[in-house]
Amino acid sequence: MSEGSEPASTAVRRDRFSGGPARDFLSSMGADDRIFQADLAVDRAHVVMLAEQGIVEEDDAASILRALDDVEASGFGALPDGEDVHEAIETAVIERVGPDGGKMHTARSRNDEVATCIRYRLREDVLDAVEQVVAFREVLADAAEAEAETVMPGFTHLQPAQPTTVGHYLLSYERALARDTARLLDAYERVNQSPLGGAAFAGTPFDIDRQRTAELLGFDGVVENATDAGSARDFLFETTSALAGLSLTLSGLAEDLVIFANKGLVELSDDYSSTSSIMPQKKNPDTLELVRSVAGDAAAGLQGLLTTLKGLPRAYNRDLQNATPHAWGAVDAVSEAVEVAAGAVATAEWPAETLEAEAEKGFSCATGVADVLAMHGVPFRTAHEVVADAGEAGGDLDAVAAACEDVLGKPLGEVADVEAVAAALDPASNVAMRDSRGGPAPSAVEQTLGVVASDLAADADEAEAKRLALDAATDRLDAGVDSYE
Questions:
Q1: Quick one: CA torsion of 159, 165, 168, 173, rounded to 10 degrees?
Q2: Rounded-to-integer distance, Cα 224 and Cα 193, Å
Q3: Using CA atoms, how far apart are residues 371 and 362, in angstroms rounded to an integer?
Q4: Number of H helices, E strands in the chain
Q5: Element spanning 369, H or E
Q6: Are 40 and 79 spatial neighbours (Cβ–Cβ below 8 Å)?
Q7: Confidence (pLDDT) at 4
Q8: How confident is the model over 243-298, as pLDDT tens digits?
Q9: Where do the CATH 1.10.40 domains begin and end in the chain?
Q10: Residue of 9, 74, 276, 454 marked active site
């Protein structure tokens, strides 16, 4: 998408390079539908600024702006042939206005134009993703509150470890998604800077107002250096990296739910499952398996993007045309996966009796018993030895008492409160013991839910404020256009 267009009477032409099989190879039109509206907005803002600065006549600006309205009404599919949507729109304007339509390209290059269009569209995608993740976090928080006392087995290395609760488990993913939200919002700040006015790479002699076009398009500021403006794509890999990180969170949750469904620890809705084409008894967690796989798509997009950008000389290179689709692919794949995962969690059922029964297996209350002994003065490593021996002997209260006799040479009653040890052997009581900040006890989960509610409100408000700022910019641009129509 390099500069060099020369307006003719009816089209943007590059007669010296007008034919040959490379024409299709050079074209990005197949992927440019996504930035059609963005380019129209960028064109309008640029033309309004040119008129305000006296660089083009107001009548010419009005004619160009009316032509852009007609191009928009006709739609992307009606555009003439071109290497890209930017050239095609300019050609369509010239066809409607005549040679003066080519004045819309004064004081800019396709290099800064395309960079601006990408950022303009990508920030919408980032906000969409943020809003989807916030909505998913709300689903997780609601489910965690409803299941705050539902005891379930907790695992490390896929082995029974300690009892926990469904609420505590779900909040672990909400907290991970909160960080994913923060990374997306942070990336948005660097996406939302305007390259427009950088021209090909070395600025322009025209008296343009870059801040004005940034304001009309809703950007927070401008990319200061003209060379950096057209060539920078770090905002793409930062956003794609944040999306890849989000996909890892989703993939982990999906894997857990697939395993839990296999063990009967969660019942997934039929809406998020399928059956076998040959085995009618089966209920497969297919949607979650696809959510799990999206991490591969996002990681591939990130790797493809980084590899494309690696080692490029400074300023614009056509390689950048192939960089952007990697980001679009990650946006689309991960955003869809967020919605599916949220739906699966919202409709899942957690069988309380089955979960609690499973939480007793594998002597998963052992650490709680060791903690009780340590609270009564037994060195933790010694308590660990006592409980390990008790586990080999069956892991019940009698086994703990016998292990105390063997290891400590004392009856259990002299070592610790017998009732406290008995309580630690009960999964629900064991969970209730662990009421430290961030723990699984219902009281601790309630505290975490308070933090979650505050964070969710803040993130939702920030996303809404950014959305309103974009809406306000659209109104400013409309007002600027209307003043010449």
A1: 50
A2: 9
A3: 17
A4: 19, 6
A5: helix 366-375
A6: no
A7: 40
A8: 999 999 999 999 999 999 999 999 999 999 887 777 777 788 999 999 999 999 99
A9: 360-433
A10: 276
Residues in a beta bridge with 6: 13
Q: Where in the chain is the domain with CATH 1.10.275.10?
A: 6-106
SS3 at position 219: coil
| Contact by Cβ (8 Å): 82, 12 | yes
Cα 353 to Cα 149, 259, 426, 435, distances in angstroms: 12, 18, 14, 23
Whether 382 contacts 407, CB under 8 Å: yes
Contact 378, 408 (CB under 8 A): yes
Q: d(Cα 287, Cα 274) in Å, to the nearest integer?
A: 8
Q: What are the residue ranges of CATH 1.20.200.10 in the chain?
A: 112-150+177-209+220-349
Structure-model confidence comparison of residues 32 and 164, the more confident one: 164
Class of domain 6-106 as given by CATH: mainly alpha
Inter-residue contact 434 to 424 (CB < 8 Å): no
**Is 276 an active-site residue?**
yes
Question: Of all residues in the chain, what percent carry a pLDDT higher than 70?
Answer: 94
Rounded (10°) CA dihedral 337, 338, 340, 342: 160
**25, 24, 5, 26: which is closest to 16 by C-alpha?**
5
Tokens of 19: 């034919």
Q: Is 436 a catalytic residue?
A: no
Burial of 155 (0-12, 13-18, 19+ CB in 10 A): middle
Q: Name the fold adopted by 112-150+177-209+220-349.
A: Fumarase C; Chain A, domain 2 (1.20.200)
The SS3 of residue 13 is strand
Helix (H) or strand (E) holding 6: strand 6-7
Closest CA to 387 of 408, 359, 417, 358: 408
Which residues lie below 8 Å from residue 400, measured CB to CB, with a gap of 6+? 369, 386, 387, 390, 412, 421, 425
SS (H, E, C) 141-210: HHHHHHCCCCEEEEEECCEEEEEEEHHHHHHHHHHHHHHHHHHHHHHHHHHCEECCCCCCCCCCCCCCCH
Range 360-433 classified under CATH 1.10.40:
yes
pLDDT at 273: 87
Quick check: 207 and 179 in contact, CB under 8 A? no
Strands 193-194 and 221-222: parallel
- Provide the whole-model pTM: 0.92
